[in-house]
Amino acid sequence: MKKISVLLTLCICFTHGFGQVNSNESKIESLLKKMTVEEKAGQMTQLSLDMVCDGNPYALVEPLHINPDKLRNVIQQLHVGSILNLGTTAHLPQRWQEIISTIQEEAAKSRLKIPVIYGIDAIHGANYTAKSTLYPQPVGIAATWNPSLAKQLAELTAYECRASGIPWVFSPAMDLCRNPTWPRNWESFGEDIMMNTVFGAAMIEGYQGKNMGDKFHVASCMKHFTGYGAAISGKDRTTAWIPDRQLRELYLPQYAEAVKKGAMTVMINSGTINNVPGHINHELLTNILKGEMGFKGFTISDWEDVKYLYTRHHVAKNYKDAIKMAIMAGIDMTMVPVDLEFTPLLIQLIKEKQIPITRIDDAVRRILRVKFQLGLFEHTHYPLSDYPEFGGEKFKAQALNAARESIVLLQNKNNTLPLSIQKPLLVVGPTANSMRSLNGGWTYTWQGEQTDKFLGDKNTILESLQQKLGAANITYFESFNDDGITNLSDAITALKSGKFDNVVVCMGEFSYTEFMGSISDLHIGAPTSQAMAQLQKTADSLGKKITIVLTEGRPRLITDFSEKAQAIVLALYPGAEAGQAVTDILFGTVNPSGKLPFTYPKYANSIVPYNHTQLEEGFDGFASGKNKYFDPLFPFGFGLSYTKFSYSNLKINKQQFAKKDTITFSVDVTNTGNTVGKEVVQLFISDLVASLNPAVKNLKGFDKISLNVGQTKTVAIKVPVQQLAFVGIDNKFVVESGEFSAAIADKTIKFEVK
To answer: What angle (nearest 5°) sits at the alpha carbon of residue 438, between those of residues 428 and 421?
Structure first.
C-alpha cells in the first residue's frame, strides 16, 4: 500500500482540485464585489429541504412536493446558498433530479445566478437514493484493511450521487473512536490514527477524483473536526477532555492529511473539548485548520449546532450572540437548518459591524471556491441518462466483494466453520431476518428504520441460508429480542430433536445513529445472555455446536457466553449484499480476511485501546504476582482465516537510521494451509525508551495480499523515520534517538535511530 504520512504538517499543499481554485480566484473576487450584504449572508446559510416543501419541518406532506412560494422566498429573498437532506425518506434518482432541477432553476432566476450547493449524508453509498448500491459502513470498510477498495467504493458512491444530481457528500468521518459505547463508532474507521488517516484519504481521493467538477465525482466533507469520538461518557454530542499533546498526536493528523489530499469542506464536532464547544473553538477552526493546515475550503456546522450554543451549551445569551461567536470562530456555512431566523440575524450583525466584512468575505470566498471547483456555474447537474450503470451489476458485485472482505472470523474452535452444505441447520436470533441489522443508520432514512422495506428484494442472512440449503433444510425461531424471550422453548425443542448438529445464532444491533444510539451499558442485553445460557446448556448436553453471527456497529460485550461458542463471526454493518456475504463465509465459499479495526473489550470497565502505555499492561504487585490490566476479548487487528499463514525472514535495510532516512522492512509470508486466502500483513513499532511514556506499540504500516496454497510472497513496507515522531512535552512533534522494536506477526527485529 502507499504509505501515508500522519504527521501534522504546517505547509500548504495544493493537490487535485487546488489548481482549479487558483484559476477561479479572479472570478470569485469579481463576483464578491457584486454581492450585497444580504447575498453574502445567504451564501453562508444552509437550510433543510423541509423548509421549501409543503408541510412543516419533520412533518412534511407526503408525497413530497416543493412549495414554489417557500422556495422563491428562500432563494430570492434570503439568497440561501445551500440545501441539504431528503425530507422524510429516500427518493428514486429521477425524483432527486426533479428536486435538484427545481431548486437550481429558481437559483438561476436570482440576480447573480449563483447556484445552490446541495449536500447529503452518503455514508455507505448513495444511501438516500432508492435503488442505489449500499456498501459496508465505514467501520466495516476499515475491517477490510484494503484502502484501494475503500477508494473504489467512494468512486462508485460519487457516481450514484451525481446520477441523483447531488454534488456534495458529508463523508468521510475520521473520528478516532476511543470509547466503543459512542453511537457513531461505526461511522469511523476505528480506534487507530493511521487507519483513520489512510482510509479517510482513500475515500476523499475516490469521491473527488482528479477533478471533482466532472460528472462522476463529488466534493467530500471530512468530519467531525475534531475529537468527537473522544467523548468521556460515550454519549453523542458530549464532552471530551483532550490535552494539547493528545490533540496534536491523535486528533489532528488525519485532517491534515485530508487537507493535503484536497478535501474542500469540513464539518465541525458537535460536542465540546475541554468545555469549549467545537463551533466556537477559534484555535482549532481558524488558527490550526485554516492557518497551520492551510485549508482553503469552507467549514460547515452540524445540524442546528450554532443555535445549540444558545439552547444547549449555554455559552451564548441568545441566537444572535451564538451566530456571532460561531462566525468569528471560523464557521463559514451554518447548517441552520429548520428556521428562517439565521440569515436576518447574520445581516444585522454585519450591518452593526459586530462581524467585520472581511470575515464575511473570507467565508463567502471559500464557499464560492467550492462551487466553482464543482463546476456548478456550468452544470448544476447532469441528465440521468449519463449514468447507465446506476444500481447495476458492476456496483452490486463490488458491494458483495466489500461485504465479504469486511467480515471478521473471531473464533473457530475445532474447525467448526465452514459448515457442511449436506446437513440441515437451526437458525435462531432477532437479526437473522433483518436488513436493518446489516446496514445500520443513514440507510434510506436517518435512523434506517425503513431499510427492510427499501431492501425487500435483497436477502437477509436467513433468506440467503435458505437459498443455499433449501428452505426445507432451515428451521428458524427468533427466540429472543431486546424486549425479552419469545419462542426460545421451540428452538430448544428443535435442538433436542437430534436433527441439527449446528445452530447459527444471529444477534447484535439494529440500525441507529447519533443520540438515538447512545447507551449506558455496552453489554449486548439481558434477553440475549439469558437465551444464550439456555441454548448453550442444551447444546453442550447434546454435543451440538453453536456459531454466533454478530451484526453490530460497535463491540457489544459477549464475554458471558463467547467462550462456550464454537465459532464467532463479526459482521460490521456490511451493507445490502451482506446476507449472501455472511452465508459465503459460513459455508467457506469465501475465506474470511477481515481484521478488527478496534479492540474488542472483554469487560465493561476495561476499555483500553491497543496502543496504550506500559502502565495499562499491569505491574508486579508485591507478592501477589503480575496483574494483567489489558485483557481484551479480541485484540486490535485480529481476525482468523480458514487457511494458515507463516512468516519468516523478517529483514530491515540497515540497523541504524538518521532522522531523514526511510526504513524498509521485508518479510516472507507463506500460505501453509489448504485453501487460497488473503492475509493482512501488519507492522507495529515500539519505542523502547522515550522522554514521555511510549505506547507499547503503534501501527505503522500494513498490506493486504492474496496467496494460493503453498505460495510465498515477500512483502515490503516502507516507513519514514519521521513516522516515529510523537508530540513531546513542548507540544511539538519530535523524533528521539534511541532503540526501537518492530513486529510483524510473531517476528520481531530491533533497530536504532541516531
So the answer is: 50
Q: Which residues of 362-399 are buried (b: 16+ CB within 10 A; e: fewer)?
A: ebbbbbbbbbbbbbbbeebbbebeebeebbeeebeebb
State how far the Cα of 162 lies from the Cα of 381, in Å rounded to an integer: 7
- CA pair distance 554, 513, nearest whole angstrom: 12
> Given 3.40.50.150, 3.30.70.100, 3.30.70.20, 3.40.50.1700, which CATH number is that of 395-586?
3.40.50.1700
pLDDT in tens, 225-272: 999 999 999 999 999 999 999 999 999 999 999 999 999 999 999 999
| DSSP alpha helix (H) spans, 375-525 | 393-406, 436-439, 451-454, 461-469, 488-496
pTM over 0.85, yes/no: yes
Q: Left, alpha or beta for 335 (phi > 0: left; psi -120 to 50: alpha)?
A: beta
The Cα-based distances of 224 to 172, 177, 386 in angstroms read 9, 12, 33
Q: What is the DSSP string of 125-178?
A: BSTTBTT--B---HHHHHHHT-HHHHHHHHHHHHHHHHHTT--EE---B-----
For 376, half-sphere exposure in the C-beta direction (CA atoms, 13 angstrom radius) is 30
pLDDT digit string, tens, across residues 21-77: 467 999 999 999 999 999 999 999 999 999 999 999 999 999 999 999 999 999 999
Q: Which strand (E) or helix (H) includes residue 120?
A: strand 117-120
CATH number (3.20.20.70, 3.30.40.230, 2.60.40.10, 1.10.10.10) of 645-753 reads 2.60.40.10
Is the CB of residue 442 less than 8 Å from the CB of residue 125?
no
Q: Please, are residues 581 and 400 in contact by the beta-carbon 8 Å criterion?
A: yes
Here the cell at position 454 is: 427499501
Consecutive H or E run containing 686: strand 677-687
Among residues 119, 149, 168, 123, the alpha carbon closest in space to that of 17 is found at: 168
C-alpha–C-alpha distance, residues 555 and 107, integer Å = 46
Q: In the annotation, is 302 catalytic?
A: yes
pLDDT given at position 395:
98
291 three-class SS: helix
Domain covering 22-53+70-84+91-125+142-386 assigned CATH 3.20.20.70 in the classification? no
What pairs with residue 619 in β-bridges? 627
**Cis ω before 181 (30° cut-off from 0):** no
Q: Indicate which residue of 302, 332, 584, 703 is catalytic.
A: 302
All structural domains of the chain with their residue ranges: 22-53+70-84+91-125+142-386, 395-586, 645-753
Q: Are strands 425-428 and 474-477 parallel, antiparallel or unpaired?
A: parallel
For the chain, the average pLDDT equals 95
Residue type, 701: G
Q: Are the beta carbons of 169 and 157 closer than 8 angstroms?
A: yes
**Closest C-alpha to 437, from 343, 358, 507, 504:** 507
Question: Rounded to whole angstroms, how far apart are CA atoms 702 and 718?
Answer: 10
CA–CA separation, 617 vs 382, rounded Å?
Answer: 57
CA torsion sign for 139, 447, 306, 364 is positive
Q: How far is CA 302 from CA 27, 89, 237, 308, in A?
A: 29, 20, 11, 10
- Classify the C-alpha dihedral 40-45-46-52 as positive or negative: negative
Contact yes or no for 535/495 (Cβ under 8 A): yes
DSSP letter at 66? B
Integer Cα distance of 665 and 683 in angstroms: 9
pLDDT at residue 16 greater than cutoff 50: no
List the 265-268 sheet strands across, edge first: 222-225, 265-268, 298-300
DSSP reduced 3-state for 53: strand
Q: Is 92 exposed, middle or buried (0-12, 13-18, 19+ CB in 10 A)?
A: middle
